[in-house]
Amino acid sequence: MGQKLLNRKFSEKQVQDSYSKIAWFYDLWGLLTESKAAKKVIEIANIKDGQSILEVAVGTGQVFKEILKRNPGGKDNGIDISPSMLTRANKRISKLNHGNYILEIGNAYHLPFKDNSFDLVVNNFMIDLLPVNDFEKVISEFYRVLRPSGRAVISTMAFGQKWYNKCWHWIAKKIPDLLTGCRPVSIVNDLKEVGFQIEKIEQISQNTFPAEIIIAMKQPTHST
Fold first, then answer.
1. How far are the Cα atoms of 4, 96, 175, 185 from residue 61, in angstroms, in the given order?
2. Rounded to 5 degrees, what are φ and ψ at 43?
3. Range of the domain at 110
4. Which of 1, 43, 54, 90 is deepest in the core (most CB within 10 A)?
5. Which residues make beta-bridge pairs with 203?
6. pLDDT band at residue 179 using 50, 70 and 90 as cut-offs
7. For residue 72, what are the contacts with CB-CB under 8 A and spacing of at least 6?
8. Which backbone phi and psi does 49 adopt, to 5 degrees?
9. Residues 138, 184: Cα–Cα separation, whole Å
10. pLDDT, tens only, 13-41
11. What Rg, from alpha-carbon coordinates, does the chain have?
């Protein structure tokens, strides 16, 4: 990896306050740094109409909108910890005239859903703002609510493979508030520890901003 993973503390109120300040221009930030990864997430998720899908941390609803377009006959749930971001997501989704979804306030540490509820869990640029010791806690919640053979598609800020990607690690270290606490992370080992089987890993760079996208499958059950 070559660079040390920076630790972070987590405060629900702090996250809510941070995103309430940036919600108004978050879409511009996403367009410049995260939109390429978002398109790849939707592509490799390979959504089939009729699935049960959960997006954790919907933000302003960019990806959730694409989920709804591809899964009009399924069950679509989205949660976010930030009321400000969720307000913008609801406004964006309302333009679809699509009523078959639920968007609500929720915490990734304690997903408000029963075990084995979803075929797909999507999570974009959230784990990279959590404490290192909490990665497995949150990933375990993804695993819990997925059905056997269900998949998680997760994007995070990454260390990157090119020299110019490394500047973002420096920014995360020296000016953490500029990235609302996000920093480069690696979660492959945490996914494996929880029980996921890694199916695919993709590295993406957009305007020097590095991202990693992982698709991981919950282990199927085997009858005896």
1. 32, 12, 27, 23
2. -65, -50
3. 12-217
4. 54
5. 212
6. confident
7. 49, 98, 100
8. -60, 135
9. 17
10. 777 777 777 776 677 777 788 899 999 99
11. 17
Alpha carbons within 13 A on the beta-carbon side of 184: 25
The structural domain count of the chain equals: 1
- For residue 55, tell me if it sits in a domain: yes
Is 2 inside any structural domain? no
> Which tokens in the block code for residue 3?
């660079």
Q: How far is CA 155 from the centre of its chain?
A: 6
Sheet containing strand 52-56, strands side by side: 101-105, 75-80, 52-56, 118-124, 146-157, 209-217, 197-206
Residue 125 zone, left/alpha/beta (φ > 0; ψ -120 to 50; rest): left
Between CA 77 and CA 55 the distance in angstroms is: 6
CATH, residue 193: 3.40.50.150
Distance (Å, whole) CA 193 – CA 143 = 11
* Inside any domain, residue 4: no
Is 105 inside a domain boundary? yes
Contact 151, 47 (CB under 8 A): no
